[in-house]
Amino acid sequence: MEVIFLGTGTSQGIPIIGSDHPVCLSKDPRDKRLRVSVLISWDDYTYVIDCGPDFRQQMLNNNVRKIDGIIFTHEHADHTMGMDDIRPFFFRQGDIPVYAHKRVLNVLRNRFNYIFSSENKYPGAPSVIENELTNQPFTLGSLDVIPIDTMHNRLQVFGFRFKNFAYLTDVKTIEDEEIEKLKGVKVLVINALRIEPHHSHFNLEEALQFIVKIQPERAYLTHISHMLGFHEEVQQQLPKNVFIAYDNLKIII
Q: What is the dihedral of CA 190, 33, 36, 143, to 10 degrees?
């Protein structure tokens, strides 16, 4: 299985528009972060988790020619606003499968009604195949996927486990029974927004504590704001098996 970090930034990305914060002015390409998303490939299957406003650029950056579907963690704009840019895939492949909680599908139908509508459809608008997710395993291609139920302050958010790989973003709290689903993963991706505590995201300390609890072989931090600090400086302070993810990083599981 190959995972590409399409974006590793928080909702505003890095650099933030108009900001003169030192991290936003950094020349290190690892400090420039598009909105958070990953591409997961195995066998002949390719899926994207989340489809944010940088989706088009992410597809171009990584020369992605085909996707078998999009899996949504939740409905926030930085995870969904790239939906219109599935059009080139739709034109080549036909209807694009999407997978999401019922609540998220309802939001997407409202936000992108011209995509989900079946009546008086605008010529050139893409179409999707809706797949409603519950907190039960589901199958993608040749693989069973386990949803991980987490909370983003008061909003339910899904993480996902693909065999020995787990991806969680926008997490603030997670119940013990959901943590049990993560035991034995070899590679864990988890959000670490910044140094200071935040009401709806893990900060760095909370992310590191969570990694110790799960005990993966490797862990990668994502959904990062400029307030975490410079990539190079923070990386030097982390445990040997914990890495700050950066845009276009590829890992093999």
A: -70
